Predict the 3D structure of the following.
Amino acid sequence: MVSIILGGQWGDEGKGKIVDVLAKDADIIVRPQGGANAGHTININGIQTVLHLIPSGIFYPHTKNVIGNGVVVDLLALKSEIDVLNAQGINFKDRLYISDKAHMIFPWHRIIDALHHKGKIGTTGRGIGPAYADKVNRVGIRFCDYPHEFAEKFDVQYTAAINVMRQFTLIEIQKLLEQMYQGDENFLRFYSENYLDKELIFAECTAILDSIQQYICNTFPLFNEAIVTGKKIVLEGAQGTFLDIDHGTYPFVTSSNTTAGGACTGSGIAPIHISEVYGIFKAYTTRVGTGPFPTELINVTGEKIRETGHEYGATTKRPRRCGWFDAVLARHSVFLNGMTHITITKLDVLDDFEEIQICVGYYYDGKITQEFPSNSVTLEKIKPLYITMSGWKSSTTQCKSFEELPIKAQEYVKMIEKTVQFPVSMISVGPEREQTFIL
Ligand code: GDP
Ligand code: IMO
Ligand code: MG
């Protein structure tokens, strides 16, 4: 049985936490797309870990964890993540698998990310767009290229990167790198005075590749055997539906398919094997980076959500933009992904609000619509149509069932179901594993 778990909004919905909860009964957890732009937080007995590339099933010793073919892997980020987890006593032998078809990210991808995308999109600066561009441009470097064609391809990418850098002045590059990577010495040490240290990068990357050779494999037989023998596989999406390169708020998106189809292509598991699609939604909405956000609250209410929900990026520490739950967007997301289950996370963050709103329609050009527009300029202009509900003003963090929730919180969840036109099957009322219940 194969389940997809993905974000229904703009990312950071709590996918890591829910994957960790569901991984208890899973055999294999796979990251199908994205890269170290993701930050998936897991809290176990008060200890918090943020995963960027390693799947969120790693904390259960019985699981196998796979970095799928659709992921773009920053070797340095992978190495430091493995080191951190090793220090926590996590064992990777026969538990970590990296698809030999996955592409690699090098320090120059991060520099080009800063030069091309920083201001406009507000990317995470992890080199994601430039690495996927190389992949689509057919000049990417895959794990199966090592060691055979690695040096030659490395040379080609390095030279192309230097040519891109030459289009900018030294001062421009310096300024952008400072803005984006201040304090990130592990990365900045490769760059000085407009010189990208090719030999150092080559030496470090090949050393990392040698140290992880045991994990690199063709994942096809692994999945095939698991499916034939009825094992449980969880595909852990990164980012969220509206950051999808095709279906998101283009161009304010990431560079992979974050929707359900991307989980199939990014793992090589055929759609016919997918039994469940879990959509994860926050009880409100957040977004990091630029781009339209109809229900954004640029006021004290938005600030209160941010502070109560600790809405600061798990990867970049940037403050997340916050706003009310958008049922128009959520309904679109449910249908687009073919969701079979929806989970509401962070309900507890709304415990102390007098009033809570849900967006149930978009007002644009003198008309009310329930359609999510394709054009980001249009989306920027719409005015949300809200219904207002009274808050419950009491704690939900200890609740273990729907019936234990305060009546007004139950009414809020029921209103989400009514406006999204889909039943809620799981609720999360805190960051810990135990703070989750099924309806
Ligand atoms: P992801 O990228 O979708 O995995 O989400 P992130 O880890 O980036 O952000 C979700 C944040 O909310 C993390 O800090 C989680 O520990 C936290 N979190 C998850 N579920 C809940 C919940 O139900 N309540 C609260 N208060 N925090 C939660
Ligand atoms: P998880 O998996 C939230 C956003 C960035 C930016 C846009 C493009 O933790 O939910 P990129 O670096 O991908 O080229 O940036 O996408 N973004 C995310 N926002 N959660 C994420 O991942 C994100 N990954 C990328 O902020 O707006
Ligand atoms: Mg995140």
